[in-house]
Design brief:
Blueprint (H helix, E strand, L loop, with lengths): L1 E6 L3 H10 L5 E7 L3 H10 L3 E2 L3 H5 L6 E4 L6 H10 L3 E4 L7 H11 L6 E3 L7 H12 L5 E10 L13 H4 L1 H18 L2 E8 L11 E9 L4 E8 L6 E8 L2 E5 L4 E6 L4 E5 H4 L18 H13 L9 H20 L3 E2 L1
Parallel strand pairs: 1-2, 1-4, 2-3, 4-5, 5-6, 7-10
Antiparallel strand pairs: 7-11, 8-9, 8-15, 9-10, 11-12, 12-13, 13-14
The protein binds nicotinamide-adenine-dinucleotide.
Nicotinamide-adenine-dinucleotide binds next to α1.
Amino acid sequence: MIRYAIVGAGRMGNAHAGNLSQVENAQLAGVYDILPERSQELAQKFAAQACSSLDELLALPNLDCLIITTPTYAHAEAILAAQQAKLNIFCEKPLCRSQADAERLLALFDDYEPLFAVGFVRRHMSKTLKAKQIIDSGSLGRLLYCNVDLSHSRYKRMPGEWFADFELCGGATLDMLAHHVDLCNWFFGRPRNVFASSLMLDPKLPLPTDYVASVVNYDNGVICNLMSSWQRFGRSNEMMEIYGEKGALIIDGGELLSLYDEQGNLQKIDAAAEFPPPKASAKGVDNVNAASGFFRQSQNLTAALSGQSRPLPGIQEAYDSLKIGLAMIESAKTGNVIKF
Ligand SMILES: NC(=O)c1ccc[n+]([C@@H]2O[C@H](COP(=O)([O-])OP(=O)(O)OC[C@H]3O[C@@H](n4cnc5c(N)ncnc54)[C@H](O)[C@@H]3O)[C@@H](O)[C@H]2O)c1
């Protein structure tokens, strides 16, 4: 049995607890949130212990892994405490909020013996696994460019919330684009330079709103155009399209991938048929979406901690995504192209 603890019982703490409740050999041992009522509510739901401090949580007997779902600016503190306790660590993305924390964590965790995994959930989705296979097969020919459209039109955050404070969350640039920047790194390799413009959650706007337009150039010549928004109206979308000399691949909100060949013929690919989602166990109390990347992520994490080999992005992938996000912010602040 793999025993988990969760620090941060908000949206993602609850989501991970629900997914883990459906995974064989996973057990939630304890929960800590700075708001005691949140610790208690989540702990009660999954028969875990509500703790009144991080130290108390980390001292629970036979703990295997700490899941960190605190706000981004508080990740580093929890990561360092888990390292002291020599625990396996799963940390939500983005790795942290500052370059200084990122450098420190990369140096400390480069050869960390227990596991360090980061929550790049899209790497666990059937459609992304299939997309990676298509890209690696070379069937698109030489890769040329990629567009990412990640617009969110139901943004409800209000002034005073950490998710509306650019210094705490990094806005759409660091928070939303972290996943797709990671996918670009996974698909295209090493970035060469970055340019970005952003509202950076401008506090002078009537209500918190954000927008980022950015270009990342990769060493292999691929030009990536990444856009993300937090808006209170308009359209929402999640789309990534990759063009090569011999075809185009479109990954959008559904499970069907669109693959165009050189003649413009369209083939729809059922990624879930080729990478079937894992089966949920019947033991849980929550209805989880077994087809979601979150569930496969929880399964992969538990399997890896049980000694099986599973693909889990770690500290280097977390750092590489954050490095680009922070460079986008520097570019938006200075107007400069940031070279790596
Ligand atoms: N993988 C994804 O798709 C995804 C989606 C949403 C959020 N996230 C990431 O997950 C993290 C958490 O986001 P969320 O939406 O759950 O936020 P949230 O605000 O809903 O939850 C954070 C919780 O942490 C608690 N908290 C704050 N400081 C703490 C501290 N020092 N110690 C203990 N508890 C503390 C808060 O009281 C709150 O309950 C963020 O880094 C966010 O970027 C990832």
